Amino acid sequence: GAGVSQTPSNKVTEKGKYVELRCDPISGHTALYWYRQSLGQGPEFLIYFQGTGAADDSGLPNDRFFAVRPEGSVSTLKIQRTERGDSAVYLCASAGAGDEQFFGPGTRLTVL
Amino acid sequence: GENVEQHPSTLSVQEGDSAVIKCTYSDSASNYFPWYKQELGKRPQLIIDIRSNVGEKKDQRIAVTLNKTAKHFSLHITETQPEDSAVYFCAASGHSNYQLIWGAGTKLIIKP
Q: Closest-CA residue in chain B for A54?
């Protein structure tokens, strides 16, 4: 089947605007992760879902960031009042029964 | 919390030679250590992983070793080929196997 997909692939927004980033995990994967990757850095953990619930949101940098997964499949990462420092590639990954995380292609967010 | 350090940041080796990338971690409770390969502009992909109850694991030209006492683990690539050129990331499980803490990455350059 298809791998993890993310939309949009690129998003350019202005400082202060609201953005939503979408992740479609591999069908049947119950675990879903959001990461943020800045240039030259490793992925930074943001939040982990097991099913519909956020099992660990300790990586969200502040209350401007929020993520949902209402039906246990598609997830949306929401960023309010965007700042220039939010510019990065946002990666989504999903996992099934094992520990391997399968990554999507990422959304490149640029805040002007 | 867990902290992962990775060295070197850049590694250049002659085609056919071996490459070694090293990582250290801080949390003795970590028990899962994956290595991911990320080609330019692409998503990270798992190449090998090891659990804390195993000291070494090998898959063709790739091997990983783990020293729990010293809290370090290494990636070994033998007979390097041009397609091995990429950024390699190590990671260690955080307070659960679901949360991965990533190293900063090693850019591996294979010289023809």
A: B98
